[in-house]
Amino acid sequence: MVQSDAQKYDALLLERGKAFPRRAFLVGSTVLLASVLSGYGMLKNREGQIISHGDKRLQRMNVYAFDTVVSLVIEGDRSVLYQAASECARWHNLFSAWDASSEVSSINRARGNTVKVSADTLDLIAKTLPYCQTSKGKFDPTIGSVSLLWDFKNSIKPDSHILKEAVSHVDWRALDVQGDTVRLIDPAAALDFGGIAKGWIADRLADFFRSRGISSGLIDLGGNIYALGEKPDGEPWVIGIADPANPKTKVITTLKVRDCSVVTSGLYEKHFFDDGIDYHHILNSATGQPSQTNFCSSTIVSPCSLDGDALSTIMILDSDLSKIETVSKVSGVEILCVDRTGSQLMSEGLAAYF
């Protein structure tokens, strides 16, 4: 029997769901530790941001969650780090679209039926929807029907006909929340909060540390950094912003920050080449293809990491120069974008962080 594109899409999505069992959650001070920049007391994360924290008074722990290395650095009792690691494991098991046991995966598998979810999942959804509306759907958590078909680790892109079918199921308005239950009105839709969940988690980790009396620390979830207070010596945390052309070896500038978030989205984070074409992970919700954008990277400095996570992605999806000043009018938000020529475009207030 000949299958329609919709049937092929359903079958492939089912196979992809089976192919991604629950991922291991690792705890330890040496798990996938990024390279040390000798002589500078700095570390470089996977996205190329450079973080200074050479103070011996700081306790450090690395864990693997949310498909990245999470680096936690605090001045205080080391046992708090283990508690924070447990929270990361819990959130991973709620939000990961790739973990078959997560709440998000349960919603995706429910095929339009209601699923009872935790208060944290409800809060993440509530804080995501305003960005769907203000971006007119460019930012859309139902991109999961598309993103789950791409495999950037193994350089696999979906069949064009299946991708076209998947795009027809991307619509954030299909997300229905009633009390403590969630359902996707379109049974073939799928959620993926990869564009905002790490920002939500960074904010929650900062609150968690504060509740434990920690006033100095650094939270690094790949491209999402939250600087808690300042370093023990009273100096600001120093964050280096990667050069999109050479993200592993060069920085374009450094920012000195206290009590704020620095989030960078870049085309270089997850990508592969096929027939000379560079396919990156920031997907256009209307086409299912990597976004055709003028910006190679977008960095947002903001009081709230969730805002930074969403806005850094939206800036790349929109790549509208006028948006830089528009977005920077939001209280406490500053922007640094790098275009394809290597030019740096920034909001006026960013100079305060140099």
Descriptive account of the structure:
With 354 residues, this protein is of the alpha+beta class. It folds into two domains: 5-23 and 99-184, T-fold (Orthogonal Bundle); 27-76 and 197-353, ApbE-like domains (T-fold), CATH 3.10.520.10. Helix content is 29%, strand content 25%. The protein is built from nine helices and 19 strands. It has helices spanning 5-19, 79-95, 103-109, 119-134, 144-147, 160-167, 197-211, 305-318, 322-328, and strands at 26-28, 36-37, 42-44, 50-52, 59-65, 68-74, 115-116, 175-178, 181-184, 217-221, 224-228, 237-242, 251-257, 260-266, 271-274, 277-280, 295-302, 334-339, 344-346. Helix 1 packs across helix 6 (160-167) and helix 7 (197-211) packs antiparallel against helix 8. The longest helix has 17 residues, at 79-95. It is globular and about 55 Å long. The relative contact order is 0.13.
Q: How do the helices and strands line up, and which of them pair or pack?
A:
Layout: H1 5-19, E1 26-28, E2 36-37, E3 42-44, E4 50-52, E5 59-65, E6 68-74, H2 79-95, H3 103-109, E7 115-116, H4 119-134, H5 144-147, H6 160-167, E8 175-178, E9 181-184, H7 197-211, E10 217-221, E11 224-228, E12 237-242, E13 251-257, E14 260-266, E15 271-274, E16 277-280, E17 295-302, H8 305-318, H9 322-328, E18 334-339, E19 344-346
Antiparallel strand pairs: 1-5, 2-3, 3-4, 4-12, 5-6, 6-10, 7-9, 8-9, 10-11, 11-14, 12-13, 14-17, 15-16, 17-18, 18-19
